[in-house]
Design goal:
The complex is a heterodimer of chains A (113) and B (113). By secondary structure, chain A is mainly β. Chain A has no helices and 11 strands. In chain A, the strands form 2 sheets. In chain A, strands 2, 4, 5, 6, 9, 10 and 11 form a 7-stranded mixed β-sheet that branches. In chain A, a hairpin with a 2-residue loop joins strand 5 and strand 6. In chain B, strand 7 and strand 8 form a beta hairpin.
Chain lengths: 113, 113
């Protein structure tokens, strides 16, 4: 069964450094999403992406964040200058039609020191 | 703002006990409703979803949920749990005009053998 994959599974970085989290969505999916879950808190929506552009973003998704689909398979989330409060589990998801169920990757645990 | 509440944060049951996990949302318009499960070390997986039609929805692994519009609820049920149902359960909602999931806080279920 096709799956969403994410790399790395765990990323440790120093405050102020740039990180890129990578996702490979399911191959025939057209809609891509990033969510995050700070320890002990809810899973929160960050951004959705369709047709090579952001279709929706949350207040969390400020200028420090960007997304890109650099080729036909990867979908990346870049955090330009990480802060301590960016420490969280980041989940990528994809869906066929936008309204349909989203398939989630296993997550990348980001630790900012 | 729209929100989703899961009132049971931790539930401990013995095998063969019945399960009901609460989910309430705050939104007066059309909603799509989902229950996801996350087994230890695994992806979020869809258990069941409701878009329209019969408000009693059957999902995988013997789970079902009932949409009660007047109560803004979508409770998850299983008549007889197994040790393998030990996991975290998330309720999620999408509202009209957006495809982002709004998640509840999750409920950790532990089933004792």
């Amino acid at each position: 069964e096709p799956e969403v994959t994410q790399t790395p599974s765990h990323q440790v970085t120093q405050m102020g450094q740039e990180v890129i989290l990578r996702c490979v969505p399911i191959s025939n999916h057209l809609y891509f999403y990033w969510y995050r879950q700070i320890l002990g808190q809810k899973v929160e929506f960050l951004v959705s992406f369709y047709n090579n552009e952001i279709s929706e973003k949350s207040e969390i998704f400020d200028d420090q964040f960007s997304v890109e689909r650099p080729d036909g398979s990867n979908f990346t989330l870049k955090i330009r200058s990480t802060k301590l409060e960016d420490s969280a589990m980041y989940f990528c998801a994809s869906s066929q039609p936008s309204y349909n169920e989203q398939f989630f990757g296993p997550g990348t645990r980001l630790t900012v020191l | 703002a729209q929100s989703v509440s899961q009132h049971n944060h931790h539930v401990i049951l013995s095998e063969a006990a019945s399960l009901e996990l609460g989910c309430n949302y705050s939104y007066g318009g059309t909603v799509n409703l989902f229950w996801y499960v996350q087994y230890p070390g695994q992806h979020l997986q869809l258990l069941l979803k409701y878009f329209s039609g019969d408000p009693l929805v059957k999902g995988i692994k013997g789970f079902e949920a009932e949409f009660i519009k007047s109560k803004f609820s979508f409770n998850l049920r299983k008549p007889s749990v197994q040790w393998s149902d030990t996991a975290e359960y998330f309720c999620a909602v999408t509202t009209s005009g957006t495809y982002k999931y709004i998640f509840g806080t999750g409920t950790r279920l532990k089933v004792l053998a």
